[in-house]
Amino acid sequence: MNPYDQRAAATSYEEEDMLMLSGIQHYAFCVRQWGLIHIEQQWADNVLTYEGTMMHKRADDAYSSELRGDVLITRAMPLVSSSLGLYGVADIVEFHAVPEATESDKVRLKGRKGWWLPYPVEYKRGSPKKGNCDEVQLCAQAIALEEMFGVNVAEGALFYGERERRVSVMFHETLRGQVRELAVAMHRDYREGRTAIAENAPKCKSCSLESICQPKIGRAAEMYLKDFLLAD
Hints:
The protein is an alpha/beta fold and 232 residues long. The protein contains 8 helices and 7 strands. The chain has helices spanning 3-10, 23-29, 31-39, 47-59, 133-149, 173-192, 210-213, 215-230, and strands at residues 19-20, 64-68, 71-81, 86-98, 115-124, 155-160, 165-170. Strands 1, 2, 3, 4, 5, 6 and 7 form a 7-stranded mixed beta sheet that branches.
């Protein structure tokens, strides 16, 4: 059993317990947003989510692959991680050709000659965010690829449509640990059916769920109760 299979076996979720992999980005960005979408099944498009959806649609038009030099590009690849309990679809997974003599991890691909190493690429609208929620999602994809192919995936990339450029992401142990902790928390909240309370923050302005979440109202009510309880 390779080390990636061992890790999956150590904490393995059943198929019926799987959650959407893309949800870990929502959870890292805002726990309440994740709860509204994945527990309460609420969603509302704004111009940001619409443009983001169109970018994903272009990347995921249909499962396909094409060879560009030493890079095999696959689109809409299904992903699953038993250790994280997450499943989803990768926008793009590139397979980079690896010399046979190299000592790094590598895999064989059906119908392809030589050795290859997977490299996940996630498409995002806009520009890099202040937090690392995008990196968290990409790292979760890498962990899924590691379990599926039995190799170490050390790096991937985020493509931001507004800047039309890639940002390389290294999957260091700190980031991997954060992904594992978030996945555990997601499963806990999902089992308990718990949606976090609203918090009014600058990031709320661009959230498509702001009108449903009503963070300002929630914050006002919280302050009122605090003043009431602290009153003489």
